[in-house]
Write a structure and sequence with these properties.
228 residues; mainly alpha; two-stranded antiparallel sheet; 10 helices
């Protein structure tokens, strides 16, 4: 009975942590390391309440094999340091947690989160397509090939008053050019230029939260698709 109670406590605490982190990230685009320290300490404390300490420790250790990968992704600027720390604390707080019978792995949350992170690109393309159908010249003054314009339609949109976005354009002479580059979420500056092409700087913590919910309810999306 104690094992079942701790299992649910871990999940509840993980949901609380992710809720706080997501709200803070949306409002401030910055999460204090204190949040991860607090829940990291809680994770260690829960370990000593487990009925089988060694087995529980081994389970957490196995889940933490994701840690080197997320740290490498952070160093390459694919997502922020807070996202990396959040994932590491999450898998130690609720290792391999799921209510489904589907297969999962230590990488399931990251896989699910990455799949979810593609959804804004689809929304961007649909949004831009509607504007084009309404005869709006969203690429006014741009001298770019069609292929690059199509790519930009997935990555961003033309914003009159951008907020928490990164610029997707630059000016060369009198012509505008699309500047499609990878932005480091920890160091890149947000765009404040009005009426410009931007890519939204959405907090990846939103997708981590969603990826964890998917793991709880359905397991690993990729493993499910391939039938593992």
């Amino acid at each position: 009975m104690l094992e079942i109670d701790i299992f649910h406590v871990r999940i509840i605490l993980a949901l609380v942590m992710l809720s706080l982190a997501t709200i803070i990230d949306i409002r401030k685009r910055e999460i204090s390391d204190l949040l991860w320290i607090i829940f990291g300490v809680i994770s260690v404390t829960l370990l000593f309440l487990e009925p089988d300490l060694i087995q529980a420790a081994m389970g957490i250790g196995f889940s933490l094999i994701i840690a080197p990968l997320v740290l490498i992704l952070w160093r390459f600027g694919l997502f922020g340091g807070a996202d990396a720390l959040g994932l590491i604390v999450l898998v130690s707080l609720a290792p391999m947690a799921t209510f489904s019978d589907s297969a999962i792995s230590p990488f399931s949350i990251l896989v699910n989160s990455t799949i979810l992170s593609v959804s804004p690109m689809i929304i961007n393309f649909i949004r831009n397509s509607f504007l084009i159908l309404r005869k709006e010249n969203i690429f006014l003054d741009f001298d770019e090939p069609t292929s690059k314009k199509v790519l930009a339609m997935f990555l961003g949109y033309r914003s009159k008053n951008p907020k928490y976005c990164f610029s997707l354009e630059k000016k060369i002479g009198k012509k505008k050019r699309l500047n499609i580059v990878m932005h480091n979420s920890d160091s890149a500056e947000y765009c404040t230029t009005p009426d410009t092409w931007v890519t939204p700087g959405l907090p990846f913590m939103i997708f981590i939260f969603g990826g964890f919910i998917i793991q709880l309810l359905f397991g690993d999306v990729i493993l499910g698709v391939i039938g593992v």
